Amino acid sequence: MGRTPDPNRKPELLGRIMDHVATEPLSRMTFRSLASALGVSTYSFVYHFGSRQEMIDAILEEGVRQQRDTLAGVDVTAFDTAQFTTWYREAFRTSLSDANRTGLRLQFEAGALEPIDPDIGKRITMSFTGWYELVDTWLRSRGIAAERAHVLATWMCDTVVGLHFGYLLTEDHRKTTEAFDLFVDAFVREAFGE
Q1: Mapping DSSP to helix (H, G, I), strand (E, B) and coil, where does residue 111 land?
Q2: What is the DSSP code (8-state) at residue 163?
Q3: If we measure between CA atoms, which residue out of 188, 191, 193 comes closest to residue 148?
Q4: Which of 68, 73, 84, 69 is nearest to 141 (CA)?
Q5: Taking the alpha carbons of 134, 138, 139, 143 in that order, is the dihedral positive or negative?
Q6: What is the pLDDT of residues 15-68, one digit of tens each?
């Protein structure tokens, strides 16, 4: 008779993996390299994740979840301009937290690999598209014409990604948040003349 799985073991392993992937690229990660680095048997990874691909899926899903948590229970389309600005400023600051840093790095690595490595899937592309659609929908709900909303949503999402990347390179939290705040003010002026 098999051993009863510990429901806490997989999340615990995933947490340890997330700590580890802050220093190792996904492209080089194997069960063997993780087992060696974390002092865990390769069997544990196979048992809990099944395959390298399933483990990478779990890692990427965790990275995306960290960013998506700012949307939990929030109806952004109901926000007026001031509420949207306040919410997005808070969401951006949360995205820069130490707990989310690995998730940000993983999104850049996986996002760059998605077009050339079918094993990575399209999780990061779908996450980015989800944020774009959210901003686009919010703008249209505020009376912005569809074509203009598309351009503005692209500007918003591409700028946020650029600021995230710059933050990963510089680790300058203060300058990154100040730049975001300046950008949001410019965005609102351009979109609504406010």
Answers
A1: helix
A2: H
A3: 191
A4: 84
A5: positive
A6: 888 777 777 777 777 888 888 888 888 888 888 888 888 888 887 777 777 666
